[in-house]
Amino acid sequence: MRTPSSSAAPVESAEPARPAASARPAASARPAAPAGSTGPAEPVAYGLSSEARNLHWLLTNLVEEVPGLLSVAVVSSDGLMLLSSDPGRNVERPAANPTGPRGSSADLATIVSGLGSLTIGAAKLMDGGAVKQTMVAMEEGSLFVMSISDGSLLGVHATPDCDMSVVAYHMALFVGRAGHVLTPELRSELRQSMESAR
Prior knowledge:
By secondary structure, the protein is an alpha+beta fold. The protein is built from four helices and six strands, in the order βαββαβββαα. Strands 1-4-5-6-2-3 form a six-stranded antiparallel sheet, with helices on both faces. Helix 1 packs antiparallel against helix 3. The protein is globular, with a radius of gyration of 16 Å. The chain starts with 5 loop residues before the first strand and ends with a helix.
């Protein structure tokens, strides 16, 4: 995969070709959680519908399956955070903490939303069609943004030495599994859940 400062690359399908066996993480991918199951539960997942709990499980699974992920967020088309991998998403991180953004994962949601708007505008100017994926490689980290079918965005902040093909593969799996269930009703439920957790 190319590693310029930022690039946009299409994702051909919701179930992408697997990266080479040597590039995949050792842990085997688990099947989607059955309806009503939360999998590895995040505190905010309690009291939600089975669809919302399943999305929380998928997000938790993404974080556990892919080495090098620091923070993950799902952001709505209007910039509101729907899901977060950070249980302390509204708690300011200590400035000396080198393992994540300076602030909460709300910062990641803001960055993902802004980058999404920028790349959509660039694609329109270039007649490039829909933006499928954006990757920004930095000295101290990597940022991946992938479109979800309803206009929402999946954002991942990872370590600089992460395997980019593995990150992109698992992000595409999440998008393929979550995109068709992320209805307006479910987005509203997830927003209310995030607000009540503040």
